[in-house]
Fold this sequence. Notes:
The chain has about 230 residues and is α/β, with parallel strands linked by helices. It has helices at about 1-15, 20-35, 70-75, 80-95, 130-145, 160-165, 200-205, 210-225; strands at about 50-55, 60-65, 115-120, 155, 185, 190-195. The chain contains 8 helices and 6 strands.
Amino acid sequence: MSSLRSELAELEEEVTACRRCPRLVEWREEVARVKRAAFADQEYWGRPLPGFGDPGARVLVLGLAPAAHGGNRTGRIFTGDRSGDWLFAALWRAGYANQPTSVSLDDGLELTDCFIAAAVRCAPPANRPTPAERDNCLPYLERELELLEGLRVIVCLGGFAWDAALRMPWSRVARPRPKFAHGAEYDIGGVTMLGCYHVSQQNTFTGRLTEPMLDSVFARARELSRGT
């Protein structure tokens, strides 16, 4: 496990130093300079975000990208924004997190049997990365998946994450490509992709995604990861 942690730490350093996408570099750094008024006294992270969590995880939660004033501010994906409020509360209810909130890097959050990453590691303008920017980030996800040898389930938050998972070289995707849907399942060589509507305010405020729906996804993830 110490070797695995070391390899993940090396990958983390590589991710946080990445400058492959000029548009994303410019945007994330501009947001970090200008800031939001509510966070004017805070120092923004303003860099790419690595995945984080339990190296022995059987469940990976895959999101789209960091929020401009969430992860791009705090330095951890889904931390300090409304989407994260929903996600971590659900992970806590499911037993994957030791607390229901995630507000900063030093807030004491710990994940058990769960790892969280994003398909794109920098905050994109309008939350819309380009296909080229996605492809630049995919090697980081591929390496994380290689290191997480116990992985059994990928919970894909939204169609963008679903598509990113299907682009992994080991996915052996059938034709036609399996379509994203909430609750959709697709086996990719011993790992099950599990679709879930994204925990964005667009979905949670409108009722498209409810707490019971989210809880059901993580209950199913636990069943699949344990082979029950």
